[in-house]
Design brief:
Low-confidence stretches: 10-21
Number of domains: 2
Distance between the termini: 51 Å
CATH topology of the largest domain: Cytochrome Bc1 Complex, Chain D, domain 2
Order of helices and strands: HHHHHEHHHE
Strand order of the largest sheet: 1-2
Mean pLDDT: 89
CATH architecture of the largest domain: Orthogonal Bundle
Length: 151
């Protein structure tokens, strides 16, 4: 009986720890497709460890399809759009120019300008939460890009 109690406690703790460190992919179009195709062979952590340029993502996805990932051509295109958008190259929020913020993070010209203005007026950002203070910026959108942001 004591062994079973200990085993249950250890298993519960292991599940709790693994869920605490599990990362969820950005909740955006094609998230479910990426999860179903890409996590059939590995977990999300592998994606979160990768910030790649478009050509590198294409090579990676092509390699996975050649190894048996179950996705047709249209699904592969959708997966690549998602990975490039949310797991593309990192962006330094304290150095990037407005035009770079706009193109790399899919921001409007107004949002990108607001980030640069806030940074110029108030100093460097230290964490993603600092972006909540930027007037006119959709913070929920920035959360989607969290994996790409450096401060």
């Amino acid at each position: 009986m004591c062994f079973m109690k200990t085993l249950v406690t250890v298993l519960f703790f292991a599940l709790w720890i693994s869920s605490a460190f599990a990362q969820d992919l950005p909740a955006a179009k094609d998230k479910e497709l990426v999860e179903s195709v890409c996590t059939a062979c590995h977990n999300n952590a592998r994606i979160f460890r990768s910030n790649k340029v478009a050509d590198d993502w294409k090579s990676t996805v092509d390699r996975m399809v050649n190894k048996g990932a179950n996705a047709d051509d249209e699904q592969v295109k959708s997966i690549l759009v998602y990975l490039n958008k949310y797991f593309g190259p990192r962006v330094d929020m304290n150095k990037a120019e407005a035009k770079d913020l706009q193109t790399q993070l899919d921001l409007s010209a107004e949002e990108a300008a607001a980030i640069v203005k806030y940074r110029t007026d108030s100093g460097n950002f230290k964490a993603i939460e600092d972006l909540q203070k930027v007037t006119g910026l959709d913070f929920a959108k920035m959360r989607l890009f969290e994996n790409r942001l450096d401060f």
